[in-house]
Specification:
The protein contains 18 helices and no strands. By secondary structure, the chain is mainly α. It has one domain.
């Protein structure tokens, strides 16, 4: 509800800016033309993942993961890490934060392990593992038009080294911090049979077919929408009550729309010039570190979406744009509001009865964020001389 109130308030402020002439109508319409495919993708992929979760797909994966862990806590955690990374890369950070979090928490509880390292792995990977593909993060989708000449594979080639670093560094930190809880043995719980095997198989096939379609080069909203419609049809036939308006992430869409309008209005008032002076120019390692650091600080101050939009005009080329993405994707590990995925993750934890201190979360983030952003940016500079 707080997300909806905040989003509605931002949307009202943005509309007032349009009516007052601060944001020209033409600029607002151009913004709408740019972001509607992104918001449609978010809606469609959320519907797919919610229905797949309802079919038991993620639970089935978690059950098999527990067996593959061979009764070793560290190996089970490593498998969860891989699952979180793949979920983020191919199905977006919000999928990992919202849908995978309850799976890994329940998995940890079933085998008698502490859920905290698994929950933190989910939210950290939701942010830091979202650098490799355009579909991994809303910020990447916003940046995709700047990579028109290279496509999704070119995007991945540019981001490959920093993306790998942004996965490994926070993973190592998490393992060091929680090594005592992970270097133990467990007894795997029995796998629960799916309620409807047809829905389980259908959701699995659709998700498997969707993954290559998302990196094929066609607009990502198209395969995502097709997958949502097909899977929705299966549920209408076999489990109609599961198909409802509640599947649509309207609060996220409302918040994103408000953020887009407000930041665009701020640009009209000179925000871009100010950030350009702060973030500097150049492609040497220090210049890229300055830019990614500015992006990370901006994301933790306000949120990564408006931070990206504010900084995008000062990029100038794909390498500097990649540095901004490193900052706004891998940097939001400190403040709760730095990434919407983190807030959604925390809501899921509360519903599961898992308590985590924001003070501890922020202290860990103060260690992880600078190291991750700094090393990933150096990786970008060295791999793109």
């Amino acid at each position: 509800m707080r997300t909806a109130i905040l989003g509605g308030g931002l949307l009202v402020v943005g509309l007032i800016a349009v009516l007052a002439g601060i944001l020209p109508v033409g600029d607002a319409l151009a913004l709408a033309d740019r972001v509607w495919p992104i918001l449609l993708f978010v809606v469609a992929i959320t519907v797919v993942t919610e229905l797949a979760a309802e079919a038991g797909l993620f639970g089935w994966v978690a059950g098999h993961t527990a067996r593959w862990g061979r009764n070793r806590g560290w190996l089970l955690w490593l498998l969860v890490l891989v699952l979180a990374v793949l979920s983020t890369i191919f199905l977006s950070l919000d999928t990992t934060a919202v849908l995978l979090t309850p799976v890994v928490v329940l998995l940890a509880r079933q085998v008698g392990l502490s859920p905290l390292p698994f929950a933190l792995t989910a939210v950290w990977m939701a942010n830091t593992a979202s650098l490799l593909l355009p579909v991994s993060n809303l910020t990447n989708l916003l940046a995709e038009r700047e990579f028109d000449d290279v496509g999704p594979l070119g995007f991945a080639r540019l981001m490959a080294v920093p993306a790998m670093i942004a996965i490994v560094v926070p993973a190592v930190i998490l393992f060091i911090v929680y090594r005592r809880q992970l270097l133990v043995r467990y007894e795997p719980a029995k796998t629960v049979a799916p309620v409807d095997r047809t829905l389980l198989v259908a959701s699995g096939v659709i998700v498997v077919l969707l993954l290559p379609a998302l990196v094929s080069g066609i607009p990502v909203w198209m395969p995502a929408l097709a997958a949502a419609l097909v899977l929705g049809a299966f549920f209408l036939v076999r489990r109609r009550p599961a198909v409802s308006f509640g599947l649509v992430p309207w609060q996220l869409v409302l918040l994103a729309s408000g953020l887009f309008l407000v930041v665009e209005a701020a640009h009209s008032l000179g925000l871009g010039a100010l950030l350009g002076a702060i973030s500097g120019t150049g492609h040497d390692p220090l210049s890229l570190l300055r830019l990614s650091g500015t992006a990370a600080l901006s994301a933790n101050a306000v949120d990564n979406l408006p931070a990206y939009l504010a900084l995008e005009p000062v990029a100038g080329d794909p390498v500097r744009l990649a540095a901004i993405l490193i900052g706004v994707n891998a940097g939001p590990l400190i403040t709760p509001w730095a990434s919407l995925a983190t807030l959604l993750w925390h809501e899921r934890l509360k519903s599961l009865g898992v308590e985590i201190s924001w003070a501890r979360y922020m202290l860990l983030g103060l260690v992880a964020a600078p190291l991750t952003v700094g090393l990933a940016t150096l990786g970008l500079a060295l791999s793109n001389p």
